[in-house]
Every structure is written in structure tokens, then in C-alpha cells.
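Listing 4. Sequential folding, example run.
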Amino acid sequence: MKAIILAAGMGKRLGSSMPKPLTILVNGKTIMDFQVERLSSIVGIKNIIVVVGYKKEMIMEKFPQLSFVYNDAFAQTNTSKSLLLALRNVSDDTMWLNGDVYFDADAPKLLLNVGFSCCLVDRKMCGHEEVKYDLNEDGFIHHISKNIPKPQGECLGVNIILKKDLDIFRDELEKVGNQDYFEEALENLTVFKKISLKPVEVGAFYCHEIDFEEDLTVVKDYLITQDGIAKQ
């Protein structure tokens, strides 16, 4: 299995001049430190690919052991095109995640051996900025976007696309607009049942995407209150 971290964006909403994945959470460890450490611990993941763009040298110098794909149009494109670049030469089941999401060590393992392409989700009330989902009559994800009238909950930004769905997913990522999120391509496929996308509930594990300063505060508070950060 491959793993992809989408880290090309400028992260303007957080108000920092550095790439958002390099934001320090606790004890000098950044968002990406936690991500790389936890992805590396998953049995079967042999290669972590990072899509870089904004101030790419900062990320590449900090993580020289990883593989990198450069999105030179990072200022004009969104996660759909960054993911497409990373998937061009991939032929295996692939886990991908946004470069601004903190998660407990065991949370992404819930997606393994599901048997379908899948998304980690949290059944809860959602705010306007959160990516939401609803379900079709078969219990698979139907819509996935920020604009869903009656959502089931939030899609947390950690996902798996199976090898058998790769070609059709790449084709759809190619078709969507430069400013679209990768969720647009997923929704185009799920609405017409071209792929079956399974929601996998995060349950008792913690997973939080860091878009704004208040998100950063929430995650830092969570880590500080844990009984030993290494357990998380």
C-alpha cells in the first residue's frame, strides 16, 4: 500500500507564513511529524509520497527519507490536482490524507481490510466549513462536500482508494476543475454508483483537521491533556 500526504497548499486560513503541515503541535513535533510517524507504523505501507508546493524546500529538508511530488501550480490548483499528480504512477491500494489533519495512531488502521474504497468519518453535527457526507440506500457514501442539507457527519480527510478503483478515480480527478477539492471527483463517482465508497466511523479515536487557529488550539489542548503523548 502507498500513502500520500497532500501538503502543497499555502494554508492561508491558519495565518502562518510556513507550510501548514510544519505547524508545531506539542513538544516541538509538527502535524507532519505525527502523520509520518503513524503512517510508518502501519504494516504494509512501504512508501510515503508527499505532494509539496508552497515553500517545498522546508518540508523536503525536514523529511529527506520521504518521496516527493511537486505541484508547481499549487497557487492555482486545489487538492484534486495535487492528488492526481501523486496518483499518476501509483498502481496499488493507496491511503491519502490532507496535510493538516491530526489523528490518533490507530485511527487510520480502521480503514484497512474494509474491502471497499473508504473514508474515515465522524457522525456528528457539522459546521459550514467541514466536508460532510450522506448515504445512499445501500449504506455507502452518496454525496461528499461542504454543502449537504442533511449530512450524516464529517469526512475527516483520511481515505483509501482501492487498486480496482484507481483508473476511474484518476479520470475523474482529471475532469474536475483546478480549484476543486478531491471530494468533487469522489462525489461525481458515488452519485452515479461508479464506485462504492464506504464510511468508516472513527469511533473513540481522535481525528481533527486544522483549518483555523481555533482548530489548532483544540488539538493542542487534546494533546496536552493526554496521559503521555506517545500513546496517542
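-- end of first protein; second protein begins --
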Amino acid sequence: MEHVDGNAAAGELSEVFALEITEAVATCAGCGATGELASVYVYEAVMGTVLRCPHCDSVLMRVAHVGGETHMEMRGVTVLRWKNAA
């Protein structure tokens, strides 16, 4: 199978990143619980924002703004899903 560069995924990714993020359902890598991002625990820290699982307190995501860039780490989320628009 041949590959193309990441630009080929631009359309697909722009559909995902334009969706309402708080309606997304995340699966925690720590305990396997699932729930809308609107229900997670959010902590504002010096280096950015930390989102934690309300069931096991594992870190789901970290978002930081550093040097004019936005950094997002999601190693605590195994799956992030949205319902398709009708």
C-alpha cells in the first residue's frame, strides 16, 4: 500500500477538530471509564490545563500554551468519539 503525506488527512481532521469538544466521549486509559469531556475534572495549573478522570483521577489530557504554540497531550485517553451530526 502506498502512502501520501499528512495533508491528505486535512479534511477528515478539520471535521473532528471543529466539533464541540465537551460533547466528545473519552475512554480513560487508566480505568476504562467513559464519559463526556464536560464531566471530567479540570485543574488550571501554572503550565496549563489538566483534565482528569472523575472515576480514577488519572490525567486524561494536558493543554499548555508555550512560546506562541499550543501543546496538547492526550496519552490518558484511549478513544475520543463524537456522535455523527444528523
